[in-house]
Known about the structure:
Order of helices and strands: EHHE
Number of strands: 2
Largest sheet: 2 strands, antiparallel
Radius of gyration: 23 Å
Helix content: 55-70%
Low-confidence stretches: none
Amino acid sequence: xxxxxxVGVMSVAxxxxxxxxxxxxxxxxxxxxxxxxGAFAGQGAEKLSSLLFVGLAVLLPLVYAGxxxxxxxxxxxxxxxxxxxxGGIEMHFAPAPLVPGTGLPQTYEPRPS
Length: 113
């Protein structure tokens, strides 16, 4: 049994930034389509507000990535403080079987059920 006693703050922050930024990319096309539909259907100020919404949709991944970075760093610092007092998360690792003669791990093959 192993115990994870601390995590790298910048490592967690970077990883969370990439994850959150990637997740936001799922929503951007839908937002852009909705905004462009509103721009074509609207008149005057409605068109302008729809086009501003397209600009905000383009900035969304950057905002989410920034929030992911900050929150990932905060969570890592909190984890390190809590793990220092209570011992961290216990984990069990099993060695991966190697392909003979290569030193590479075998690929996972699920057992038939």
